[in-house]
Amino acid sequence: MHIHGGDIYSRKIRMDFSANLNFLGMPESVAQAACQGVLMSEHYPDVHCRELRSAIAARDHVDSQWILCGNGAADLIYSLVLAEKPRKAVVCCPTFHEYEQALETVGCDICWVMLEKEEDFRYTERILEAITPDTDLLVLCNPNNPTGQILPTELRDCLLERCRICHTRFLLDECFVDFLPNREENTAVNLLEAFPELIILKAFTKLYAMAGLRLGYALCTDQSLIRRMQEVSQPWNVSLPAQQAGVAACGESEYVKKYRRLLAVERERLRNAFEERGARVYGSQANYIFFQSREDLGEQLLKQGILIRDCSNYRGLGPGYFRTAVRGEDENRELIRSLDRLGNLAGTVE
After folding, report:
1. Coil, helix or strand for 331?
2. Which residue in 26, 62, 222, 230 has its CB near the most CB atoms, within 10 A?
3. Distance (Å, whole) CA 334 – CA 241
4. Which stretches of the chain score pLDDT less than 50?
5. pLDDT tens, 5-59?
6. Pairing relationship of beta strands 88-93 and 109-114 according to DSSP bridges
7. Residue 322, beta-bridge partner list
């Protein structure tokens, strides 16, 4: 099984920097709503998530008919793949592992587009060149996980046009777009009506610190696809606690604003700390820092009770690549003190 961040169960952890969650924690209103959902759980949840979809539609300014909710973003990735059964897909690497894992379940041939270290792992026009008339699916993550690099809007628009011409479905994972300072410019939600080939993936997990509740949603104007994804999904896949929590989260605008202000400061603090100590930082425009460092860094920090994400198991990467979440000021300062105990981060292990 592929190892992700957030595994605090197999070892003793003092601070978890491996999962990219809102460091303010779950909003009180969301926790209370989830508890209320537990008390209501003698009943089945609404299989259509009607109240939740209405809340998302009002917050995101979209039609509720475009929304399909799922048991986290990963659930929706699998639903899309099962509904479409693509024979050939274009996927960049390094990127989120679940795309590959889901595609393998239907025997899909994956055309890999390598994001090169020499180009700071940026998205380039090589993706455009990889899409051909026999490409059934394009999968991109914006900003990318783990690199934090943004898909340029000009390239995104060219990819959308190319997908239209080639009749290629375009899955655009925007689970981290809400952490960008220029998020309104980088989301493709306003392009959904113009491009029925486009399906956008979103999640409550990171922004509202709801990882354990499992709640994500997809946006698409192609109602045929939405229906087919519903047909291959298990019924009642979104629990009552998750639905109630999601409705409450949609009303937490001040919490989100506060977090974004603090995130901008703390992201810069951590980025500077890694660079000043010899690490090579790439991208890192979301709520995490992606960097190259000494190969034993993760192991040495773990000895101090700090867990970061070892990215060596990402396709296209190897030992020495790491991702760390941006946490609150006190935790970030503690991480920096732990880094100082290790000396030069660019050093190699003898």
Report:
1. helix
2. 26
3. 34
4. 2, 348-350
5. 556 556 788 999 999 999 999 999 999 999 999 999 999 999 999 999 999 999 9
6. parallel
7. 291, 310
The runs of H, that is alpha helices, within 277-307 are 297-303
Instruction: Give the distance from CA 29 to its chain's centroid.
Output: 23
Q: Which two tokens stand for residue 128?
A: 């455009």
Burial 165-175 (b: 16+ CB within 10 A, else e): eeebbbbbbbb
CB distance 6 to 16 below 8 Å: yes
Three-class SS of 96-126: CHHHHHHHHCCCCEEEEEECCHHHCCCCCCH
d(CA 214, CA 230): 17
Nearest 5°: the CA angle 340, 345, 348 is 135
Q: What's the pTM?
A: 0.95
Closest among 148, 151, 168 to 160, alpha carbons compared = 168
Among candidate residues 242, 261, 339, the one with its CA nearest the CA of residue 37: 242
- pLDDT at position 349, please? 40
Contact 216, 173 (CB under 8 A): no
Task: Tell me how far CA of residue 131 lies from CA of 12, 116, 192, 236, in angstroms.
Answer: 45, 19, 20, 36
List the structure tokens of 64.
């509720």
Q: Is the dihedral of CA 53, 57, 63, 69 positive or negative?
A: negative
Q: Which two tokens stand for residue 76?
A: 């929706």
In single-letter form, the type of residue at position 294 comes to R
Residue with tokens 């939600």: 189
Q: Provide the 10 A C-beta neighbour count for residue 300.
A: 16
- The residues, any chain, with a CB within 8 Å of residue 29's CB and separated by 6 or more, are 248, 249, 251, 252
